């Protein structure tokens, strides 16, 4: 049944009766028209970038997994090309609820935020993740800021592109697929020895190697990626386990949850779904390996309590810092000292 759209005098757009006098379609008919329209746009055998891997679920649903480099303009184009070609039912990205704000910020704001690591961000990281995990997050933000400054490009462009493109596809849902970052940071800190923590912190603090856009694009080459992962495993096996391998499991779990049959809006009939996943290229091999395996997600969501030695060291460090702060307060005067002790960053250092 044909339908016309007219623009009224106040600028609004809406359906009206067409020239032949037919009534506008009902809600059910409109949904069916959109469903059929998307089906016409969807390509059965699309020509996709070489960074895309196709995986199939037991019910016939299809996952198109786009491997990206997080500071890559080409990766943004790969995401756009894939979503427009396959017109997915669901798009899943490698983000958690703690990083979802980057989807709604424009590039200039993100570029400014990524470069600016201030006291407020340090306080927020420590308050959200605890002292050690918060400091680790700040060091990782420093690395991101270094890359941002080198390339003049904000991180996560491929995720924002996926968010925008998903909004243009009828019936498409948008899911977050990554493990919450506080869990990853706390499990990483717990897995590293004191010496490994010191070495990692030192390396992150003094990262200054120049990075070019060509270097970023090389991150999408699987052979280079495998070499980098091998080096990482050799130097920091626990780091690779918590930051890469465990998140591979979690991402696979979320992608499999999304890759299930969907219902047709007209008759409720279930049909195989088409899903697009957008993840860093480093996670693609692990997701492929895990795709048909039985996974224990609960195991990688728990955070073990700190060991007695770790607790003692943390207490000593906090005690020293509080002693220094107390002496400083004594020197500057009681009123100012009490004011300093109310600051969130200072309260984070008090024994809990």
TrEMBL record:
Pfam families, per the entry: TraB_PrgY_gumN
Protein name: TraB domain containing
Organism of this sequence: Xiphophorus couchianus (Monterrey platyfish)
């Amino acid at each position: 049944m044909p339908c016309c759209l007219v623009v009224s005098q106040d600028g609004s757009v809406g359906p009206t009766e067409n020239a032949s006098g037919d009534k506008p379609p009902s809600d059910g008919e409109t949904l069916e028209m959109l469903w059929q329209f998307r089906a016409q746009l969807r390509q059965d055998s699309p020509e996709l970038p070489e960074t895309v891997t196709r995986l199939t679920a037991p019910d016939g649903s299809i996952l198109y997994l786009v491997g990206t480099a997080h500071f890559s303009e080409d990766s943004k184009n790969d995401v756009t090309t894939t979503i427009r070609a396959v017109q997915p039912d669901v798009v899943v990205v490698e983000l958690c609820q703690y990083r979802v704000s980057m989807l709604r910020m424009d590039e200039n704001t993100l570029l400014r935020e990524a470069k600016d690591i201030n006291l407020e961000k340090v306080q927020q990281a420590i308050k959200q993740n605890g002292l050690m995990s918060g400091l680790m997050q700040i060091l990782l933000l420093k690395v991101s800021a270094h890359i941002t400054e080198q390339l003049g490009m904000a991180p996560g462009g491929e995720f924002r592109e996926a968010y925008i493109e998903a909004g243009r596809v009828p019936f498409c849902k948008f899911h977050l697929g990554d493990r919450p970052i506080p869990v990853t940071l706390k499990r990483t800190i717990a897995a590293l020895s004191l010496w490994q923590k010191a070495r990692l912190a030192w390396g992150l603090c003094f990262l200054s190697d120049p990075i070019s856009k060509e270097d970023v694009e090389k991150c999408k080459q699987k052979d280079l990626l495998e070499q980098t992962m091998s080096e990482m495993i050799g130097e920091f096996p626990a780091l690779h386990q918590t930051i890469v391998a465990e998140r591979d499991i979690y991402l696979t779990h979320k992608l499999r949850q999304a890759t299930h049959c969907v219902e047709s809006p007209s008759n409720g009939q279930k049909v195989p779904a088409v899903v697009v996943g957008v993840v860093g290229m480093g996670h693609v091999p692990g997701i492929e390996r895990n795709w048909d395996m039985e996974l224990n997600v609960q195991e990688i969501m728990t955070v073990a309590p700190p060991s007695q030695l770790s607790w003692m060291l943390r207490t000593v460090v906090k005690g020293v810092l509080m002693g220094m702060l107390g002496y400083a307060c004594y020197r500057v005067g009681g009123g100012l000292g009490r004011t300093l002790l109310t600051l969130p960053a200072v309260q984070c250092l008090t024994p809990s």
